[in-house]
Design goal:
By secondary structure, the chain is an alpha/beta fold. It has one domain: Aldolase class I (TIM Barrel, Alpha-Beta Barrel), CATH 3.20.20. The protein has twelve helices and eight strands.
Length: 239
């Protein structure tokens, strides 16, 4: 699996996010590799409605509804069609306790049952939330160990991204291969993806051999002169 984080690079402004999401969908259909756009809250509805397929939100807040000006509501994102969310990216850090609280709100549905009773028009949200996925990012082996014990219920996917390598020319697969292997063992039985500097087919092949199940990429695709060609080459690593 490949998650393409659009971030807020100018290449995704105006029609850019839709164009890139269409590339992700086309390459996914051609290669049979799951490729998921991870978009900003401003682009979520348009990408979902015009392109379809799975679309993840780049981040969310603990506040799901109410008087919270400026908050990014995960519940509202679900209403708009989001299939998942990325939490605790190194560019959007959250306190561990808040990450755990958000996951509890998503995974434990007693509150949504109550909300649905009060608002019959949102009955469908209960089933949508059951299929909604959470990716939790972490930066180190220590954080991986913390997430294992702290996140109950657990996240659906765990993303290992050393922050010093994000956006750089050296990949996590080249700089910290032993760390990928250790992370996979710490999080044994859980889906682990890796990111930071992933740029080549070889980077992905190494990561998969070390125990990862997929990758989280961004600038290598979003800022590429030919995103379609670049993404196709990365997808070939899974064949």
């Amino acid at each position: 699996m490949i998650f393409v984080n659009f971030k807020i690079y100018r290449q995704t402004f105006t029609d850019g996010a839709v164009k890139l999401a269409k590339i992700c969908k086309a390459i996914s259909e051609k290669t049979k590799v799951k490729i998921t756009p991870v978009v900003s809250a401003l682009d979520l509805y348009r990408v979902k409605s015009e392109v379809g397929g799975e679309v993840y939100l780049q981040g969310g807040d603990l506040f799901f509804e109410g008087a919270h000006t400026g908050a990014i509501s995960v519940l509202q994102a679900v209403c708009l069609g989001a299939d998942g969310v990325v939490l605790n990216h190194s560019e959007k850090k959250l306190p561990p306790g808040k990450v755990a609280q958000i996951i509890v709100r998503i995974k434990k549905d007693s509150w949504i049952k109550k909300l649905a009773k009060e608002n019959p028009e949102i009955n469908s949200l209960e089933s949508k939330l059951k299929n909604f996925k959470v990716i939790v990012c972490f930066r180190s082996l220590g954080q991986a160990e913390k997430w294992v014990s702290r996140l109950k219920p657990p996240a659906d996917i765990y993303a290992y991204e050393p922050p010093e390598l994000i956006g750089g020319d050296i990949s996590v697969a080249s700089a910290k291969p032993k760390s990928i292997e250790k992370v996979a063992k710490i999080l044994s039985g859980r889906l682990v993806i890796v990111g930071a500097g992933i740029r080549t087919k070889s980077d992905i092949e190494k990561s998969l051999l070390l125990g990862a199940k997929g990758v989280l990429v961004s600038s290598d695709i979003v800022k590429a002169r030919n995103p379609e060609k670049e993404l196709k080459e990365l997808a070939e690593a899974f064949s």
